[in-house]
Sequence to fold (450 residues):
Amino acid sequence: MKITFIRPNISDTRSPDAWRPLVFAILANLTPPDVELDFFDEHLVPIPKELDTDLIALTVTTYTAKRAYQIASNFRQQGIRVVMGGYHPTFLPEEALHFSDSIVIGDAEGVWGQLVEDAQQGKLQRIYKMGNKPPLDGIKYNHSIFEGKRYKSFVPIQFGRGCRYACDYCASHAFYGSNIRHRPVSDVVAEIKALNQKYIIFIDDNLFVDIPKIKELLQALIPLKIHWGSAVTLDIVKNKQLLDLMVQSGCLAVTIGFESLNDQILQQMNKGWNLKFGDFSTIIQRFHDRGIMVLPTFLFGYDHDSIDAFDATAEFAIRSKVVQASFFTLTPMPGTKLYSRLKSEKRLIFTRWWLDPKYRFGQATFYPKGMKPTELSEGCRRARKTFYSYRSIFQRAFDPAANCRNFRNLGFTLGLNLVVKHNFMTHIGCKLGTDEILEPILENVPLEIV
Ligand code: B12
Fold:
């Protein structure tokens, strides 16, 4: 039997910022050796229209759902079976089952072996779901599946899953709940050693959910002499010992979800704890003092946001000399508390924005309270334009205390800003999927979110 893994993009386009999709490293390792494997990532190459394969396994997020369904429909018309997994089929199994033969809800570990066996016997079930969340001990990530593919030079690594916070917009919280699991430190260290790569990105939503565990990992990283980055929450800024350990173990940059400069908004999104650790400029300064670059993220569109927020936030980010910043249009993901609230308040412009032919990437999907939907999308665009102007890029990149401590950091800052600038120009305003008609049309099918 032959299985083909496919990662769709948001449309039939290539992305210069593609990272290795770790799910396929996991599935490759769980697949029996007598099964032949192949893998296409639409971020890197176009997906062939015809494939000689027995089963297609697609990983599906909400932004890539339409494209995934189009790819699936093409192959199912040719008689090839399709299985889907990931965030979107987990939250919308009914929807995904209109376009696939089988879906996996939640984690793949614990069900993939059975699924492959069933496929070999021609007895694929419609739904596979683990009753509980399996421990992460012993999971192996088979990176050989990525060999010869043009991914970024840094390698993503997973230490754990889950976050102790419950921000109302977060799809990961909706996916994992409060369940927090970690891989044994020895497994992570062995994986990094085997990869023989200098630059690592930990893809955990929050690397610092369990302080004793992260200290154990950071201690073990010191002898490896790598450089790493990750997403962290700003509560760690009070822990000086931890910050020192981050520097000793090679931390280069951290992503921090500041989300908003408005206290009421942070309270509404259930992230009021962001306010307990001092003002944001001082927090950024603490990281800069140690040579760690900062990538903040901001969200716009909560009820207390006004049109002044965009310029004020972009100016704050430039003034703070952050290496890169994200300015997102708040977008309700199915499965989140935010989605349920906006739906019950009848404020969604598109109920299934991810399939709606009128929706464009970056566009407002709901009616904000403090501005018009068009002002929300336009404001985010303006914040990006200001922040990624060449003047701002050079101002931030050549600041010796923030991003220009050495040539490596300077090169990283310039490269990152140019890639992100290019990305916004290509993605913002782009439609999801292609113009191919998606059958069945789901307008009249009730939207059931698990
Ligand atoms: C790394 C990452 C990125 C990177 C790289 C992405 C890339 N295209 O190369 C960057 C920073 C570029 C990025 C960008 C974006 N991202 Co992102 N990203 C992640 C992150 C942090 C890790 C993904 C990962 O590798 N996870 C580890 C693997 C092992 O987990 P997994 O993929 O979920 O797979 C497990 C299960 O889901 C399941 N599974 C998944 N697929 C399949 C398939 C089959 C067949 C089976 C059996 C099982 C299965 O099994 C796996 C193991 O148990 C996740 C958050 C997270 N913690 O997962 C967000 C996340 C996936 N991103 C998200 C979003 C929204 C985006 C953006 C749209 C942001 C934006 N507005 O620009 C863009 C879109 C980019 C694109 N072109 O698609 C959301 C998706 C939410 C949703 N409902 O779909 C997430 C969940 C973040 C969040 N908290 O909301 N992202």
Q: What stands out?
A: Residues 258 and 414 are 23 Å apart (CA to CA). The mean pLDDT is 95. The pocket of cobalamin is lined by residues 9-10, 15, 17-19, 21-23, 26, 43, 57, 59, 61-64, 83, 85-88, 104, 107-109, 112, 156, 158, 170-172, 203, 205, 328, 333 (CB under 6 Å). The chain has 16 helices and 14 strands.
